[in-house]
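Retry 2 of 3 after timeout on previous attempt. Resubmitting structure tokens to design endpoint.
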């Protein structure tokens, strides 16, 4: 009985020892598992931060660049288009946006590369606008020069489809042809005027010689109170004592004042009556010469 009791006590002691060891092993395992879980959690958080930064940083760059593009460059672009629609010419301007150069082999990289492609196209549009502005300003200068009478200005269309350039060049060529035609007519008219002037001078000399040899005075006068003379032949000097120059435009005396006072009203009324009848007439009246002689 004692041996059995000692064996039971010994087994209980061993069981208690192994139970303590097992409890200690379980506690150590829990601590190790907790440490591993904390390490895994910390690693996950670190990886999340790294991944977030790798994704969000390029996205923030794209977002900021897009905002700047919309607020600055595209707004300026819109103003240029508005100016053109109102008949103005585009002013020189520079696109401030720059490519992002984000080379990620993922969706973020695809977004960045698409944004860079947009910037590249806008840069091409900037160059096209600059060339168009230069061309439109040259056409405007040509039109202003033509309006000022300068038809020697040259216009070079930008291409075969430059309708405005071809239209202005065609207009200038048409105006040049019209100018040349007008100059030819002017030269022809100048020749005719010179020819007719020569003929008129010859006729005047012939008429002056003819009237100078006629007895009496040939004249042309206005139908006014003084019978103001416009032309008087040289015979007027021998008839009135006044030179033709003294009688023309009443320089010294009006022809009406040379008519005898007793005949003046009668002669005026008779001449007016004959003129109203539009008939040729012959009228006799007395005049007083420069020396007071009556004729």
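Retry 2 succeeded. Sequence:
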């Amino acid at each position: 009985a004692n041996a059995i009791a000692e064996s039971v006590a010994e087994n209980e002691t061993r069981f208690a020892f192994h139970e303590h060891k097992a409890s200690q092993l379980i506690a150590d395992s829990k601590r190790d598992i907790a440490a591993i879980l904390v390490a895994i959690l910390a690693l996950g958080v670190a990886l999340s931060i790294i991944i977030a930064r790798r994704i969000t940083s390029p996205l923030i760059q794209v977002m900021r660049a897009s905002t700047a593009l919309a607020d600055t460059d595209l707004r300026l672009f819109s103003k240029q288009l508005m100016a053109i629609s109102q008949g103005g010419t585009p002013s020189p301007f520079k696109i401030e946006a720059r490519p992002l150069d984000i080379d990620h082999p993922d969706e973020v990289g695809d977004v960045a590369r698409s944004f860079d492609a947009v910037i590249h196209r806008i840069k091409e549009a900037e160059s096209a606008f600059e060339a168009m502005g230069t061309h439109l300003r040259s056409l405007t200068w040509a039109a202003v020069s033509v309006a000022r009478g300068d038809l020697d200005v040259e216009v070079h269309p930008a291409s075969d489809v430059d309708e405005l350039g071809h239209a202005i060049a065609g207009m200038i060529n048409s105006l040049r042809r019209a100018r040349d035609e007008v100059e030819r007519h002017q030269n022809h008219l100048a020749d005719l005027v010179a020819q007719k002037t020569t003929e008129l001078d010859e006729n005047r000399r012939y008429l002056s010689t003819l009237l100078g040899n006629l007895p009496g005075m040939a004249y042309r006068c206005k139908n006014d109170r003084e019978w103001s003379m416009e032309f008087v032949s040289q015979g007027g000097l021998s008839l009135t004592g006044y030179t033709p120059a003294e009688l023309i435009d009443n320089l010294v005396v009006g022809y009406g004042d040379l008519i005898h006072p007793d005949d003046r009203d009668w002669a005026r009324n008779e001449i007016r009556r004959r003129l109203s009848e539009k008939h040729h007439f012959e009228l006799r009246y007395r005049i007083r010469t420069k020396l007071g002689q009556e004729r």
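Attempt log closed. Residues 42 and 74 are 45 Å apart (CA to CA).
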